[in-house]
Amino acid sequence: MVSKALPFTKEKISEIIAQYPTPFHLYDENGIRENARRLKEAFSILEGFQEFFAVKALPNPYIIKILKEEGFGADCSSLPELLLAENTGIVGESIMFSSNDTPADEFRKAKELGAIINLDDVSHIKFLEDEAGLPELVCCRYNPGPLKEGNAIIGRPEEAKYGFTREQLFEGYRYMRDKGVKRFGLHTMVASNELNPRYFVETAKLLFELIADISGELGIKFEFVNLGGGIGIPYHPKQEPVPYDVIARGVREEYAKIIESNGLAPLKIYLECGRVITGPYGYLVTTVRHMKHIYKDYVGTDACMANLMRPGLYGAYHHITVLGKEDEQPCFKYDVTGSLCENNDKFAIDRMLPQVQRGDILVIHDTGAHGYAMGFNYNGKLRSAEILLRQDGSFAQIRRAETVDDYFVTLDMAGLNSFS
Ligand SMILES: *Cc1c(COP(=O)(O)O)cnc(C)c1O
Asked: Is 304 marked active-site?
């Protein structure tokens, strides 16, 4: 039987539910911290290694604060994300600002915070110069186009809206060099949820070679390379986690071959992962509200796409445990649904589970990244609470559930009465 272990008992969940009704996302602090340490340890063989947590994956300041304690910076792409980082005390070059189609006020805020600005387009150099002034340090995002095969979620690079072409990079760095920019970085992000470690080594090689070419032609020195995010997680119990040390050692080898041998060291190595940092340590806990038997058998939960979009959006697999029935045989086939008036509001289709009954508690795994964060209010559905399971076994609500008042807060209901 394929299964995934849980870092909590049914009793603990009952205790939490007594205080905070389902649905909620539950995050395992211990798992997050241990994983952060494993990642740092594996990548410590790389020059100046730094991880910038992609805030969009889990934009909760309590989580970001935990990650800050573990030595991570923040990768932000909007004004609210910059403010989240600032509020947790992450400022200066511990922020990577990797945005696209960027408004002027966000560039200004990023510059004010002293963040590393990662430009998405050659035209943004002049835009930044005019709107905020060029900072001393600038990074550019590379889109390798047909040079690099993409993967399922992010697509093929030549179809992707992100980044500079190779020619534009030469043009852009030359312009900035002539304008007095002194420090440079290079970035790319061409994968999402990629489980093959070689993919990241290949990406590093591509960037190292490009740095050698640009440095040679323009006589500029690169300070860092940002390999982006995109390290995948084993959503399915039959998949394996990505071995960090295989990526780190592979990158180290390419570094020796291309960077050190061309006299381009030291070059710091950065990552901006989100999913792999928190994804496996989040759980959507939901109660079975109704069982429905028509042409198929449906498990209707008290959660819906407002709480977790990935299955409906990408057909993504999320493992489901029926709490307390871990040892029962999965002999029943169900579609596990939410309550949206959208037929793709399903957490699982044709999933084999033990027999499910009303009132059962389902744990939907791997919701710690791109889970809560993607939620929306379609159909008047409200987003859930977020609970942190602390290392000492206690729990804390780190975001309350939305209420109907939150749903109406952007509307002037009083004005409606005088409106005709
Ligand atoms: C989404 C995103 C990330 C994080 O991606 P993960 O798949 O969560 O690791 C990092 N950088 C950029 C620019 C992104 O858009």
From this structure: no
